[in-house]
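job 3f2a | input accepted
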Amino acid sequence: MSAVVTSPTPAVDFSAVKTKQQAAWSAGDYAVVGTTLQIVGESLCEALDLRPGARVLDVAAGNGNATLAAARRWADVTSTDYVPALLERGRARAGAEGLPVSFEQADVESLQYPDASFDVVLSAFGVMFTPDQEKAAAEMARVCKPGGKIGLANWTPSSFVGELFKLIGRYLPPPAGVKSPALWGTEERLRELFGDRLGSIAIEPKDFVFRYRSAAHFLEVFRIYYGPVHKAFGALDAAMQESLAADLVALAERFNRATDGSPWIAPNMLRAMPAKITPISAAATTARIRCPPDTAARRMVSSLTNEPNGGEPVAASRPSPQAAPTPKRATRTS
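job 3f2a | predicted structure (334 res):
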């Protein structure tokens, strides 16, 4: 007689994972790469049909691409991230443009805001990196008003960025039990995460174009400034670093769509907005979700559905600048 004994899957220590992720996103200088994605924040806000006076929360905001796009449309914006240095970058950018934005340190998996506090909740390539995906989605839905909207821009599994993280995972395997961030770039996963909280959801696949001088230039920028790649190189010996560098260059060349000798990559993304990447090819997706006004459902969008204040027009006056509150808690993910 034989028996098969299976050991239970160990519980994921999300706190430990989050600490490592925060260190990764604090390394290098993500703002250098993040600024090149500004068009995504603008497109997301246009897809949402963001209205003046709307109360907007940007979670895992990074250096503030979606934050600034929303503030330029006269929204009352709160920008959050768990990496203080990135919040400072966003604050400096807002100050340079004279945009009144409130910056607060916050963990998207445990937001410090009351239920139904915001008309719109945004995230551009941010919340997708949280280790506890279910908790992050629940928190976004909780703080969004009934009839409000949630707008996301996420890299897809087959995108350039999705493939980049798979490649890094072959050198440094991710923690057991932590789901791939790229799952946020699929409609199936979004429906799983938000479930009956949604009134409706609209998905729009888009391409974003990364523009670099060459594949070698892409490698140089990401190796120095993009936290997860920067940390990966730091964790490998010289031989493995050389191998990873060669694989990253090959990946960039595989996605490259340029025919004139210059590199550009077009990664796919899923979102509520359009995006393009030039020196290399990637993909993204956008989604828009709508919530019935009388339920706790939320809408995720690339384009908007409901107006704030139940459809009543909102005064288009820019809110007066306010001092950034004392940081509360920190969090990001990889």
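job 3f2a | Residues 238-255 form the longest helix (18 residues).
job 3f2a | closed
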